[in-house]
Each structure stands twice: as structure tokens, then as C-alpha cells.
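Dear all,

This email documents one entry for the complex benchmark we are building for the journal club exercise. For each entry we list the sequence lines for every component of the assembly. Then comes the predicted three-dimensional structure of the complex as a C-alpha cell string, followed by one or two observations. Please use this as the template for your own entries, and keep the labels exactly as they appear.
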Amino acid sequence: MKQFHFNAYGLHFSAEFAVSVFSEIEPGPAQVVIRREKIRRDQYVMKKGFLIREMTPSGFLFCVKDVAAFLIVNGETILVDPDTQEQEAWEMLLSGPVMAILLQQRGFLTLSGSAFLYDDRAILMLGPSGVGKSSLAMALDKKGCSFLTDDICAISFSEEGKPILHCGSGQVALWQDSMEALGLPEDASTAARQNLPKFRVSVKETPAEQVYPIGHVYILKVGPLKKRALNIQTLDFLGAIKFLGLNLCGRNSLVDMGLENESFKMIHKMAKHVGCARLLRRESNMETEIVSTYLESILKS
Amino acid sequence: MRNLIWIASYPKSGNTWMRILLDSALNKNGAEVDINEINFAESGFLGRQQFDEFLEFDSSYLNIEETRAFKKKYFENLSAVSDSDTFIKTHDANIALSDHSYLIPENITKLAIYVVRNPLDIVASLANHNGITNDEAIAMLLDKGRTEFRSPKGITSNVDQFVSSWGCHVLSWLDSNLPFFSVRYEDMLQNPEGTLSQVCHLLGKDISKETIRNAVDNNSFEVLKEKEVKEGFKEKSFSSNRFFRRGKAGGWKNELTREQAEVVIKDQKSVMKRLGYYSDLKSEI
């Protein structure tokens, strides 16, 4: 059976199927293997009417009803048992919460966000979906601040305790209105999902082994602003811990795996070494250019 | 367990005022309510972050049908995690889902309090709120496919709210199998104490006449307007100057042209008749 190989987060993956979120690379020794396998799940309780999230003797089980079940084992194996023919639907889970669980098992701190490069340091933009992290990262890429990663910021720590970003795939997911605002042609992208105006754009071939020290973290939020497009509020140490914690990927999974304390310690270390600020912006994709210009000027000052 | 109580309405129909009055009567002994701290009813404006935390995956990859189905699960979860009555404000129409159930879960609904307002008066209010013309507001009011917080090319920081047209919205609640009580905004204006008292009684709450009277006096529309001028109001939209605008019934006669009124009436006549809004018109048009 043909194996597909790709890089992400400094890891070499091999899979039984192509994963559209990741670009194929030359075969090599894999650190993580992804394969299809039937996963028994009927003995586990479904939470909230659609979700199974459970530490089992075989690995961590993550299942969304009618989409797919995943078993993530020791940070080395991901088993996939799809419940739908629509691969894009379960790929969304694979590259999102399932990938976060794998990275957590491997000891990474995982935060929801995008990142770009400024002055040889990774600048992180965290926040919920729809707040503009990806479009801002792309807008800054166009200004020469190279795009680094989207969706998950996977972080490890140097011996001195300083946080280091490991990049995911060189792809960014953008909505159609963002692509139009950024002047990106639709034919240079692939649809993230059928009938959804969201597209994947390959920005660059980011070497998986490339890592970046983290320079600053911005936590994005949409809110009402009358006069300016952007408002920045520097966070103190405790504020940074709070807001970094709020942007952890898969908090519940961390608790189930008994890794919550480890993540908290990593957040603590990160808040010690990296400046954090809240960035309030208006709800408007038309203002991405204004916000990115403002952000760039703040970085330069 | 039936523990969800909906405060539902088409937008700009008096939902906020109803919640303020209920907050005052049920929770504050009739005292003035801080309009920027209305601690009454879970917001039906489901923030995307809140929704993603509930789902434990990125909701932006869901299509419209899936979003609605998971939104229903969100409501079901609100019921499941609470052992007491949970009030929810919503502007959602009670639409049918792809599995033939309805967005508003019937088996866990204790009561749906539906606030309805003459659509002719809603027009100018919608126009003000959205910073658009009356004609544009009429188009919005009559749009059966109207969904708030979703654009055809992107997403927003709130989860989709399917509103539909005024008439479809009203019927989706009126003709549902939900335990239902409708309140006309015009009756709230004319007899606020009587209306509030009736709603409290339906909720099984024994609230004194004095508390009801105080709730109404301390939170009258005029009082709310003044408060907004002094303190601002966080639910005011960016496009409008004020949220609490006129608070009157029949203002449409001065705000709409005859032609504009006729467009609304022609399209929404059957529902207006059913709610008693059409019989008032014959002498006006």
C-alpha cells in the first residue's frame, strides 16, 4: 500500500492516504504513523450527544458522531475510523483537535493560533475562529513578515526555558472575503470543504525542522471600537497566564490525559519569557490591511 | 427535564425590554436594572468561541445545516447541565432541521415567551439598528432566507442565527408544538404592569403588585433611553446612534411612505391579520 509522507511540527508523518492539509514530501523514517482501522467505541459514553473523548487502555479516543473516530496512541500513532465518505469533514478533525492531542502526548504546549516571523522571532496571534488570525498572518506575510503556521501553535522549551515555535504545514485556511481583501486569486487555492467558501492556500514550503524562538503573543478579540481599528492592552504576568490558558487547544483532552498540570507549567514558563498583549479589533474583514499595518508599526516601535 | 424558557422574538420587537422587566421583577425586587449588566437569560447570540469550546473543534468548518444541528445540541446541553429553569434569549426562527426535528428542542422546553411587534413599526427600528434605509430594512424584513452573522463569503465572531422573514419567524414559533405564550409589544406599551404580571404568573412566580409596578416604573422605555444616553449600551450596534429609539406603537405612520407600508402589508398580510395588526390598518392606508 502506498504511503504518503508529510512534515508538520518538526515531525515526519506517514499515512495510508493523502491528507490535503499537508503537502507531500519524500519518504523517510516516520515518527508518526496514520492509518485506517476499525475502532470500537460503543462501550464509551457519548458526551453532549455527539462527542466521545476518553482515555482508554489502547490510547486516547476522540470521536465525533457521524464524522469519525480517532485513536491517538503514545504520540506515535493515529488510527482513523471514518463514519462519513466526506474526507474533508474528518480531515478537519485530524488536523485540528486530533493533531493537538498527538502533540500534547509528545509534550508540546498547544495554543490555538497563527504565527508570522518578525525580526527572526515568531509572533503568535491567538484567539477563537473567525477573529482574523489567519488573514492577519497572511496580510503580514505580504508585508515581508513570513507566514509560519496556522491553526495550532506547537511550542516546546529550550534548556533555558524559553518557548520555541514548531511550524505546522505551510498552508493557511482563508475565507473567500479574506482572500478577496488580500488580493489572493482563488485558483491558487483548494476548497477546504465542499460548498463552504473557505480555501487552503499553500504559502510556502516550511521546513518541518525549522523552529523559531517566540518573540511576542497577541491575543485577538473582536469588539466594538469607534475611533480606531485596533486597541492594544499589554498583559501583566497573571493576565498573560490567564489568556494563554484560555487559548489552549483541547483543554478537556488535556485533563482526561492527566496533562493539565504540565500544560499549566508550560504556560507559566511562557508567560515568564514572552510579552503578551490583548488586541481588540472591529468585526470587519475589510480592515485587515489597516490592522496589519498598525500591528507592523507596533512591532517596529 | 423541561427547564428551558425562551424569550424569543424577531429582532427589534421588544425582547430586550421584556428581559429587563423580567430581570427587575424576578431578581431585583422591582429595582432599576443596569442595562449593561442584564443578568437575565443566556444570550442567544452564541459567540463563536463559546460554540467552539462546546464542540471541542473548529465550528468554522461546519456548513449551515451542521451548524444548526450542533446549535440544537448546544441548547440541549444547556438544559442537561442545569437543574433549574434556564432562560435563553433568541432571535432564531424555530426552523426545521435536516433530521425533521426543530431547532428549539420541544422535549426540554418549559415555556416559549414570544414577543411580537407590528412589522410596520419594526422597519424603522431595523433601519436604525443596521444603518440602512427603510427600503433596505423592508427587504430584510421580507427576506425568507435572512441569516444573521453569516456572510456568503466568510464568518463572524457570532454563530449563525437564522431569522427568516418576519412572518415566517412568527409562524415558526406560533405554529410549533412548544408550550407557548405570545406577548404583543403594543400591549407591553399600553399595559406594562398587566403584561409583566401575566408573564410572571405563567412562570409560576408570585410577584407582588408593588414589585411589578416598581419594575415598570424603574425600567420604563423613557428611563432606558436616558440611561443609554448617559452610560451607553453595549448591545447597540456600531451602525446606529441609539438602541432605545422611540418605543412607540404606530410610529410607522410618520416613518414610512404609503408605498413602503403597502409593500410590507401585501407580503405579510396573512400573519398580520392573525395577530390583529391588519384590522387596525384599514383606516390608515
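Observations: Residues 64-80 of chain B form the longest helix (17 residues). The mean pLDDT of chain B is 89.
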